[in-house]
Design a protein that fits this description.
about 400 residues; alpha/beta; 6-stranded parallel beta sheet; binds uridine-5'-diphosphate
């Protein structure tokens, strides 16, 4: 099958850890690779955000990345991309009419969805939508701090009724989508996966001080990832070190506002000497960071899916997480890790301390976590489930309704 992946801001070729580069980039890259390995012809359409990018990059894994000219060829913050989506969709429609006609388009994030639905209407290509994040949830948690375009929620609702199928990544997202007005009959659940060859217990680990327990936390340095709660929680976990992976490269940490804030907080909590920011690291290095840890902590306020807990689990590392979003599916409380309420540094600290003091429990969690990651979250499994969905929508064409 010819499959078009639309990922307007999140290129599979981007360096991760920056403000707008994280799980969606990984998801699109891994899913496309798994589909290509099954014999499908996959092209990822992403916005051209640098002048030197060639129009088409053919990767060794069989996936091609197409850089779509839409707006200036420079970095534009995700929340400022909407005005360029019309150009993006026109360009897609041009390609899909003549050069390369896909059987299905899978759009990632709502703006990709808008571009894909419009191009789909012009060309007859059916559209599958994965939101990755929802405006309703963001607004609820961030209120006035939410920098999304004002009409995002309305567009997302309209998209849910216009595309041929919506693919949610967790049961929590299903509930959110239904609350938002997306008909249940248009929804399927296919969780993200984890690459079990890359993320495995065996392999090199980043050197560490063996005498000091290591708590690892990973992600973009944005407030909602809850790193401040993790730093506060460290007050209840004496002797342990906290390693934070993510954000700009190490050399830029000193001037990064979020990194400086975190360091200041750590100093004022009296844990400055036990909290270490290492900055963003390339994806290939992530497994060795996970393997170096006794426990991964993921403390988001909300989280559409959350790849980092799953990556840690696949490396045989237990997780202490907040009971939000996708984590309530991936982490089984009391079996593969512990779940605590969000924004509660005390609960987080107590859970961490208990786990770090209990070697047997850590071993049991690690074993169950590894088993769960392998059994339930392979990319091959996700690719097979999505192929079935692609087959359904491209065979039985439902009339798409127009997004105004
Ligand atoms: N990641 C990375 N380098 C970093 C920080 C993160 O490669 O320095 C990767 C991480 O391994 C994961 C993704 O970025 O694959 C983050 O995904 P997640 O779903 O946890 O968060 P999101 O960024 O989507 O909010």
């Amino acid at each position: 099958m010819r499959i078009a992946m639309i990922s307007e801001h999140a290129s599979p070729l981007a360096a991760l850890g920056g403000v707008d580069a994280g799980g969606q980039n990984t998801h699109v890259a891994e899913l496309s690779t798994a589909l290509a390995a099954d014999g499908h012809e996959v092209r990822v359409f992403t916005r051209r955000d640098a002048p030197d990018l060639p129009e088409l990059v053919q990767l060794d894994n069989g996936v091609a990345v197409v850089h779509v000219p839409a707006g200036p060829a420079e970095h534009i913050a995700k929340d400022d991309l909407l005005p360029h989506m019309a150009q993006f969709s026109q360009w897609l429609a041009g390609q899909w009419s003549h050069d390369w006609i896909p059987a299905v388009a899978h759009a990632h994030f709502w703006m990709s969805g808008l571009a894909a639905v419009h191009a789909g209407q012009l060309t007859g290509v059916p559209v599958v939508q994965t939101y990755h994040a929802l405006g309703t949830v963001k607004r609820r948690h961030q209120g006035a701090m939410d920098t999304s375009p004002p009409r995002r929620i309305g567009y997302e609702r309209a998209l849910g009724r216009s595309v041929d199928r919506v693919v949610a990544q967790s049961q929590d997202e299903v509930a959110e989508l239904i609350r938002m007005g997306v008909p249940r009959g248009r929804l399927s659940v296919v969780p993200s996966g984890v690459n079990e060859r890359t993320f495995a217990p065996d392999g090199p680990a980043v050197p560490r001080d063996e005498g000091r327990p290591r708590v690892l936390t990973v992600g973009r340095l944005v407030a909602r990832k809850g790193f401040q709660d993790v730093v506060r929680a460290m007050q209840l976990v004496p002797d342990a070190e906290c390693v934070v992976v993510g954000g700009p490269p190490a050399a830029e940490l000193d001037t990064d506002p979020q990194a400086r804030q975190l360091r200041q907080l750590a100093e004022s909590c009296g844990v400055g000497d036990r909290v270490r920011l290492v900055g963003g690291v390339p994806r290939e290095q992530m497994p060795s960071w996970y393997r170096s840890a006794d426990v991964l902590v993921a403390a988001p306020w909300y989280e559409p899916f959350g790849l980092t807990p799953l990556e840690a689990m696949a490396c045989g590392v237990p997780v202490v997480g907040t009971a939000v979003g996708g984590l309530t599916d991936t982490v089984v409380d009391g079996l593969t890790g512990d779940l605590v309420p969000p924004r509660d540094p005390r609960a987080l600290g107590m859970a961490l301390r208990r786990l770090l003091n209990d070697r047997v429990r850590r071993f049991a969690y690690a074993t169950a976590a590894l088993d769960r990651a392998r059994q339930c979250y392979s990319w091959q499994r996700a690719a097979a489930q999505l192929t079935a969905i692609y087959g359904t929508v491209s065979g039985v064409r439902q009339p798409s309704r127009v997004v105004a």
